[in-house]
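Human: If only I could read C-alpha coordinates as easily as an amino acid sequence. Take your time, and here it is.
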Amino acid sequence: MPRVAVMSSDDDTPRAAFALLSWRLNLFVVVVLVAVSVLAWKSTIDDANAMNRMAMGLGQIGSRFQGSMSAAYFLTMWVTMMVAMMLPTVAPMVLAHLAVARKRGEGTLSTITFVGGYLLIWSAIGVLPMLAYWAFAGLSDDVAQSRWLPPLAGGILMVAGAYQFTGWKQRCLDKCQSPFAFVVTHDFGGGVFGALRAGAVHGLFCLGCCWALMMVLVVVGLMNLLWMTGLFIMFFAEKHWRHGLALARVAGGALVVLGIAVVAAPGLLVQISR
Protein backbone atom coordinates (compact mmCIF):
# COMPACT_ATOMS: atom_id res chain seq x y z
CA MET A 1 0.00 0.00 0.00
CA PRO A 2 1.49 3.39 -0.96
CA ARG A 3 2.46 5.56 1.97
CA VAL A 4 0.83 8.97 2.19
CA ALA A 5 2.83 11.51 4.14
CA VAL A 6 1.10 13.43 6.92
CA MET A 7 1.76 17.15 6.75
CA SER A 8 0.91 20.15 8.85
CA SER A 9 -1.11 23.06 7.50
CA ASP A 10 2.09 25.07 7.12
CA ASP A 11 3.62 22.31 5.00
CA ASP A 12 0.51 21.73 2.87
CA THR A 13 1.52 23.57 -0.28
CA PRO A 14 1.15 22.79 -3.99
CA ARG A 15 4.83 21.87 -4.13
CA ALA A 16 4.48 19.49 -1.18
CA ALA A 17 1.88 17.48 -3.10
CA PHE A 18 4.70 16.16 -5.27
CA ALA A 19 6.14 14.40 -2.19
CA LEU A 20 3.05 12.25 -1.69
CA LEU A 21 3.79 9.81 -4.52
CA SER A 22 6.82 8.40 -6.31
CA TRP A 23 8.55 10.61 -8.85
CA ARG A 24 7.58 8.20 -11.63
CA LEU A 25 3.90 8.47 -10.81
CA ASN A 26 4.21 12.24 -10.41
CA LEU A 27 5.83 12.47 -13.82
CA PHE A 28 3.15 10.30 -15.41
CA VAL A 29 0.29 12.36 -13.98
CA VAL A 30 1.89 15.68 -14.93
CA VAL A 31 2.69 14.49 -18.45
CA VAL A 32 -0.91 13.34 -18.96
CA LEU A 33 -2.36 16.61 -17.69
CA VAL A 34 0.03 18.71 -19.77
CA ALA A 35 -0.54 16.58 -22.88
CA VAL A 36 -4.33 16.96 -22.63
CA SER A 37 -3.90 20.69 -22.02
CA VAL A 38 -1.59 21.07 -25.03
CA LEU A 39 -4.12 19.35 -27.29
CA ALA A 40 -6.85 21.61 -25.94
CA TRP A 41 -4.63 24.68 -26.50
CA LYS A 42 -4.08 23.62 -30.12
CA SER A 43 -7.82 23.36 -30.68
CA THR A 44 -8.41 26.68 -28.90
CA ILE A 45 -5.78 28.44 -31.00
CA ASP A 46 -7.37 27.03 -34.17
CA ASP A 47 -10.78 28.28 -33.03
CA ALA A 48 -9.38 31.71 -32.13
CA ASN A 49 -7.70 32.06 -35.52
CA ALA A 50 -10.91 31.03 -37.27
CA MET A 51 -12.82 33.72 -35.35
CA ASN A 52 -10.23 36.50 -35.44
CA ARG A 53 -12.58 38.71 -37.49
CA MET A 54 -15.59 38.17 -35.21
CA ALA A 55 -16.54 40.48 -32.35
CA MET A 56 -16.16 38.30 -29.26
CA GLY A 57 -15.93 41.07 -26.67
CA LEU A 58 -17.32 44.52 -25.89
CA GLY A 59 -14.12 46.19 -27.04
CA GLN A 60 -14.35 44.54 -30.47
CA ILE A 61 -17.81 45.84 -31.37
CA GLY A 62 -17.58 48.06 -34.42
CA SER A 63 -14.10 46.89 -35.45
CA ARG A 64 -15.09 43.29 -36.28
CA PHE A 65 -18.20 41.75 -37.80
CA GLN A 66 -21.00 40.45 -35.62
CA GLY A 67 -21.17 36.70 -36.10
CA SER A 68 -23.48 34.07 -34.68
CA MET A 69 -22.74 30.85 -32.84
CA SER A 70 -24.96 27.98 -31.74
CA ALA A 71 -25.09 26.94 -28.10
CA ALA A 72 -23.52 23.56 -28.88
CA TYR A 73 -20.62 25.12 -30.77
CA PHE A 74 -19.99 27.80 -28.15
CA LEU A 75 -20.09 25.41 -25.20
CA THR A 76 -17.79 22.93 -26.97
CA MET A 77 -15.35 25.76 -27.60
CA TRP A 78 -15.65 26.93 -23.98
CA VAL A 79 -15.04 23.47 -22.49
CA THR A 80 -11.97 23.02 -24.66
CA MET A 81 -10.70 26.44 -23.58
CA MET A 82 -11.22 25.59 -19.90
CA VAL A 83 -9.34 22.31 -20.28
CA ALA A 84 -6.48 24.24 -21.87
CA MET A 85 -6.34 27.01 -19.29
CA MET A 86 -7.32 25.31 -16.04
CA LEU A 87 -6.20 21.67 -16.16
CA PRO A 88 -2.45 22.31 -15.57
CA THR A 89 -3.26 24.52 -12.57
CA VAL A 90 -4.81 21.61 -10.63
CA ALA A 91 -1.89 19.17 -10.93
CA PRO A 92 -1.07 19.31 -7.18
CA MET A 93 -4.73 18.71 -6.29
CA VAL A 94 -4.87 15.73 -8.65
CA LEU A 95 -1.70 14.28 -7.12
CA ALA A 96 -3.07 14.74 -3.60
CA HIS A 97 -6.33 13.05 -4.55
CA LEU A 98 -4.54 10.16 -6.22
CA ALA A 99 -2.32 9.67 -3.15
CA VAL A 100 -5.31 9.57 -0.79
CA ALA A 101 -7.32 7.36 -3.17
CA ARG A 102 -4.48 4.85 -3.39
CA LYS A 103 -4.14 4.86 0.40
CA ARG A 104 -7.82 3.91 0.62
CA GLY A 105 -7.30 1.13 -1.91
CA GLU A 106 -9.22 2.87 -4.71
CA GLY A 107 -8.17 2.80 -8.34
CA THR A 108 -7.24 5.63 -10.66
CA LEU A 109 -10.86 5.82 -11.82
CA SER A 110 -11.63 7.69 -8.62
CA THR A 111 -9.11 10.43 -9.44
CA ILE A 112 -10.21 10.59 -13.08
CA THR A 113 -13.75 11.13 -11.80
CA PHE A 114 -12.45 13.84 -9.47
CA VAL A 115 -11.00 15.68 -12.47
CA GLY A 116 -14.28 15.16 -14.32
CA GLY A 117 -16.23 16.75 -11.47
CA TYR A 118 -13.86 19.71 -11.49
CA LEU A 119 -14.25 20.25 -15.24
CA LEU A 120 -18.02 19.81 -14.95
CA ILE A 121 -18.25 23.05 -12.95
CA TRP A 122 -16.16 25.02 -15.44
CA SER A 123 -18.21 23.55 -18.28
CA ALA A 124 -21.54 24.47 -16.69
CA ILE A 125 -20.48 28.06 -16.02
CA GLY A 126 -19.94 28.44 -19.77
CA VAL A 127 -23.65 29.24 -20.09
CA LEU A 128 -23.01 32.71 -18.64
CA PRO A 129 -20.33 33.85 -21.15
CA MET A 130 -22.49 32.32 -23.88
CA LEU A 131 -25.42 34.55 -22.84
CA ALA A 132 -23.07 37.53 -22.69
CA TYR A 133 -21.82 36.73 -26.20
CA TRP A 134 -25.34 36.42 -27.56
CA ALA A 135 -26.19 39.76 -25.95
CA PHE A 136 -23.44 41.79 -27.59
CA ALA A 137 -23.37 39.74 -30.82
CA GLY A 138 -26.79 41.16 -31.61
CA LEU A 139 -25.72 44.78 -31.15
CA SER A 140 -25.16 47.02 -34.14
CA ASP A 141 -21.80 48.59 -35.02
CA ASP A 142 -23.22 51.96 -33.95
CA VAL A 143 -22.96 50.79 -30.34
CA ALA A 144 -19.19 51.31 -30.58
CA GLN A 145 -19.87 55.05 -30.58
CA SER A 146 -22.27 54.90 -27.63
CA ARG A 147 -21.38 56.76 -24.48
CA TRP A 148 -22.37 53.83 -22.24
CA LEU A 149 -20.04 51.22 -23.75
CA PRO A 150 -16.68 52.42 -22.29
CA PRO A 151 -18.17 52.88 -18.78
CA LEU A 152 -19.68 49.39 -18.96
CA ALA A 153 -16.40 47.83 -20.08
CA GLY A 154 -14.41 49.88 -17.59
CA GLY A 155 -16.82 48.95 -14.82
CA ILE A 156 -16.36 45.24 -15.54
CA LEU A 157 -12.59 45.66 -15.34
CA MET A 158 -12.86 47.56 -12.07
CA VAL A 159 -15.17 44.95 -10.53
CA ALA A 160 -12.79 42.18 -11.63
CA GLY A 161 -9.90 44.03 -10.04
CA ALA A 162 -11.70 44.89 -6.82
CA TYR A 163 -12.69 41.25 -6.26
CA GLN A 164 -9.01 40.34 -5.94
CA PHE A 165 -8.97 42.16 -2.59
CA THR A 166 -12.00 40.42 -1.08
CA GLY A 167 -12.18 37.77 1.62
CA TRP A 168 -13.90 35.41 -0.82
CA LYS A 169 -10.90 35.57 -3.13
CA GLN A 170 -8.53 34.80 -0.26
CA ARG A 171 -10.64 31.93 1.05
CA CYS A 172 -10.99 30.28 -2.35
CA LEU A 173 -7.29 30.73 -3.13
CA ASP A 174 -6.39 29.19 0.25
CA LYS A 175 -8.40 26.09 -0.68
CA CYS A 176 -6.62 25.87 -4.04
CA GLN A 177 -3.21 26.20 -2.37
CA SER A 178 -3.84 23.45 0.24
CA PRO A 179 -4.34 20.31 -1.85
CA PHE A 180 -3.84 17.66 0.85
CA ALA A 181 -6.10 19.39 3.37
CA PHE A 182 -8.80 19.85 0.76
CA VAL A 183 -8.79 16.21 -0.32
CA VAL A 184 -8.85 14.72 3.17
CA THR A 185 -11.65 17.04 4.29
CA HIS A 186 -13.77 16.60 1.14
CA ASP A 187 -13.65 12.85 0.50
CA PHE A 188 -17.46 12.49 0.96
CA GLY A 189 -17.04 8.85 1.91
CA GLY A 190 -14.71 7.94 -0.92
CA GLY A 191 -15.60 6.01 -4.05
CA VAL A 192 -16.42 7.28 -7.50
CA PHE A 193 -19.45 9.33 -6.48
CA GLY A 194 -17.56 10.87 -3.59
CA ALA A 195 -14.73 11.74 -5.96
CA LEU A 196 -17.15 13.33 -8.41
CA ARG A 197 -18.64 15.44 -5.62
CA ALA A 198 -15.20 16.39 -4.30
CA GLY A 199 -14.08 17.42 -7.79
CA ALA A 200 -17.19 19.54 -8.22
CA VAL A 201 -16.65 21.25 -4.85
CA HIS A 202 -13.05 22.00 -5.76
CA GLY A 203 -14.32 23.33 -9.09
CA LEU A 204 -16.56 25.73 -7.19
CA PHE A 205 -13.66 26.98 -5.07
CA CYS A 206 -11.54 27.35 -8.21
CA LEU A 207 -14.39 29.23 -9.85
CA GLY A 208 -14.61 31.46 -6.80
CA CYS A 209 -10.91 32.16 -7.15
CA CYS A 210 -10.84 32.85 -10.88
CA TRP A 211 -14.27 34.00 -12.09
CA ALA A 212 -13.55 37.72 -11.80
CA LEU A 213 -10.43 37.57 -13.96
CA MET A 214 -12.34 35.47 -16.47
CA MET A 215 -14.80 38.38 -16.79
CA VAL A 216 -12.01 40.37 -18.42
CA LEU A 217 -12.47 38.20 -21.54
CA VAL A 218 -16.01 39.57 -21.93
CA VAL A 219 -14.39 42.98 -22.44
CA VAL A 220 -11.31 42.13 -24.53
CA GLY A 221 -12.69 39.13 -26.41
CA LEU A 222 -13.61 35.62 -25.30
CA MET A 223 -11.11 34.18 -27.79
CA ASN A 224 -8.38 36.78 -27.32
CA LEU A 225 -5.28 34.58 -27.27
CA LEU A 226 -3.00 37.20 -25.74
CA TRP A 227 -5.28 37.78 -22.76
CA MET A 228 -6.08 34.07 -22.43
CA THR A 229 -2.38 33.27 -22.19
CA GLY A 230 -1.88 36.02 -19.62
CA LEU A 231 -4.78 34.74 -17.52
CA PHE A 232 -3.47 31.17 -17.71
CA ILE A 233 -0.08 32.31 -16.42
CA MET A 234 -1.80 34.35 -13.73
CA PHE A 235 -3.96 31.44 -12.54
CA PHE A 236 -0.99 29.07 -12.50
CA ALA A 237 1.20 31.51 -10.55
CA GLU A 238 -1.57 32.37 -8.07
CA LYS A 239 -2.14 28.75 -7.16
CA HIS A 240 1.45 27.53 -7.09
CA TRP A 241 3.43 30.47 -5.71
CA ARG A 242 3.43 31.14 -1.97
CA HIS A 243 2.96 34.85 -2.71
CA GLY A 244 -0.02 34.10 -4.95
CA LEU A 245 -2.40 36.30 -2.98
CA ALA A 246 -0.04 39.27 -3.21
CA LEU A 247 0.25 38.67 -6.95
CA ALA A 248 -3.55 38.52 -7.23
CA ARG A 249 -3.83 41.90 -5.52
CA VAL A 250 -1.21 43.46 -7.76
CA ALA A 251 -3.18 42.23 -10.77
CA GLY A 252 -6.38 43.50 -9.15
CA GLY A 253 -4.94 46.97 -8.67
CA ALA A 254 -3.76 47.00 -12.28
CA LEU A 255 -7.25 46.08 -13.51
CA VAL A 256 -8.87 48.81 -11.44
CA VAL A 257 -6.47 51.36 -12.92
CA LEU A 258 -7.09 49.97 -16.42
CA GLY A 259 -10.86 50.18 -15.90
CA ILE A 260 -10.61 53.82 -14.83
CA ALA A 261 -8.40 54.55 -17.84
CA VAL A 262 -10.94 52.95 -20.23
CA VAL A 263 -13.70 55.16 -18.81
CA ALA A 264 -11.53 58.27 -19.05
CA ALA A 265 -10.10 57.47 -22.51
CA PRO A 266 -12.66 55.37 -24.45
CA GLY A 267 -10.25 54.82 -27.35
CA LEU A 268 -8.19 52.60 -25.06
CA LEU A 269 -10.94 49.98 -25.09
CA VAL A 270 -10.26 49.11 -28.73
CA GLN A 271 -6.50 49.10 -28.14
CA ILE A 272 -6.61 46.48 -25.38
CA SER A 273 -9.06 44.30 -27.33
CA ARG A 274 -6.96 43.76 -30.44
About this structure: Residues 1-6 have pLDDT under 50 and may be disordered. The chain has one domain: 15-272. Residues 15-272 form one domain. The radius of gyration is 20 Å.
